[in-house]
Amino acid sequence: MKRSTSDAGLDLLARRDHFAAELRLKLRQKDFPIDEIEDFIQKAMEHGWINDRTSTQKYLAEQIRKGGHGRLWVQAKLMQKGIDASLLEELLSQEWDDQVEKDLALQQLAREQLSFSSSGIHEQKKVWDKLLRRGFNRSIVFDIMNR
What we know:
The protein is mainly alpha-helical. The protein is built from 9 helices and no strands. The chain has helices at 5-15, 20-29, 34-46, 52-66, 71-80, 85-95, 98-111, 121-133, 138-145. α4 packs across α6, α5 (71-80) packs antiparallel against α6 (85-95) and α8 runs antiparallel to α9 (138-145). The longest helix is centred in the middle third of the chain and has 15 residues, at 52-66.
């Protein structure tokens, strides 16, 4: 007997918070009818089981706490999860300023025992590239490099 869309959706939500687009995609991958998926998503939003704003705020706080990645990486990750661009920009501007970005970049340097000061140009380039790959803002990395 096939499970209902609601049962499958609730099972997913019981495991962890999901963004609406993320839950929609997972339910589509399980071949549930689109109209049932949309009905469940609407019901879940009305009951507060899904709240993209709250989930995004939690995700941002967790990324700031954990460190390791810059704003650009986090922004790209959330866009992949289907977060509305205007909501994401609003929350990022509230939660993730230049000082947060700088602190996270410095934490990443310390965690990996990297430095711009004592290394040659080739090593500095490696550190520069590593921070950029992890999504840190170019101007923040430049400021850290020249301090």
